[in-house]
Amino acid sequence: MRPDASVLHLDLDAFFAAVEQRDKPSLRGKPVVVGGVGGRGVVATASYEARRYGVRSAMSTREARSRCPHAAFLTGRFHAYREASERVMEVLRSVSPLVEPLSLDEAFVDLAAAGLPDLSVPTVTEVAEEMRARVHEVTDGLTASVGIGTSKFIAKVASDLDKPDGLVVVAPGTEVELLRPMHVTVIPGVGPATAERLRRAGIHTVADLERVSLDELVRLLGKAHGAGLWSLARAEDDRPVEPDRETKSVSVEGTYDTDLTDRKVMESVLTRQAGDVARRLRASGLSGRTVSIKVRLYDFTTLSRSTTLSSPTDTASTVARLARGLLAELDTSGGVRLLGVGVSGLADWIQEDLFGDDFGDGPGDADEADDAVPEVPLPGLPARHRSGWAPGMDVVHADLGRGWVWGAGRGVVTVRFETAETPSGPVRSFADDDPALTPWRPPEPPAPDAPVTPQSPTPA
Question: Are 315 and 352 in contact (CB under 8 A)?
């Protein structure tokens, strides 16, 4: 724990939903839920208007719909979230060179490295207010909640105390007093299972936890976990802000409206997911040695299997073959709710043609689909997914311009024509194969080393 309140935690408020409301004028001030839109989808983010009805992150979409049926349920637009996140991170890095992003919408900032005249509460408060104003400006209206404290733990707790659009600075020496009345789940690492174990021992608040001896906590929770909670209950946290946190793994998973029972369909799903993982690896200049799969069965039993290569790969067909081989080890006859593929043991290099003899992959076919597994349509998915029109996605019409998908199904796609720069727009419906309607994506920025084509001189 530091002597000064010099660790800042910034958390963008209801980030995904806020971006959707910013870019879709007709949704401003209305309930918005972003996540999986199918019956087995999961809520990623709910706007504050939806939260008033009890909708929360990680809730099933089915329950969210029952609580707030009039909300707009949208799939994610990660290009828009990534762009907003990059702008925010630029603001943070302009304040301090030590910025530790935790996700697209939150980060720690080390104000001790910001070159401030001092680290008094008034000074760091002023810096935080200026930072929040700049974030609001560069993101065209998004808000952030900020906490500042003597450690990462305290800063994170503080940022949750005055949401949305709030700022809380915990003065040095007041940390334990702040924590004592709070429920034990405020402490990182206290999930449902740990909370239940502590409840059975009569431990409900941080004050209760503080009164328990280290030996007793170790007996209840194990050496590492017990010792960690013992320290955090006393606000003891000396973790540094790490600006270069390494990516541990790259993974993709999906939950399906109807249990998958056909092995060919499962293999096709894994092949697609392996392709997505491989593209993300290559885009980040990474490769990996360990391929794993995650399988959730019909009865919610979750299984995982992994295999480790002698050298790293970023080849889609290699990851797909290994993933399918791992699936073959499992009994999935009862049906599968969720499938996922991941690659870990990451490195920033790859040995070319490493698997040429064993797997038949050459260095030129990393982006090609595996010929051995044809594309198989997935049963039970809504028509909007099969046709490619997901609610919330950006589209453009040849005559009517840009808009977004309001809904789709039964061969029809409905679009509201509006953007962040326009008023709330009209709604029109089209056949889902109308050639005038296409997905819209922002233009790719030019590569940093792209050659510049010289302009021809203008005749005098």
Answer: no
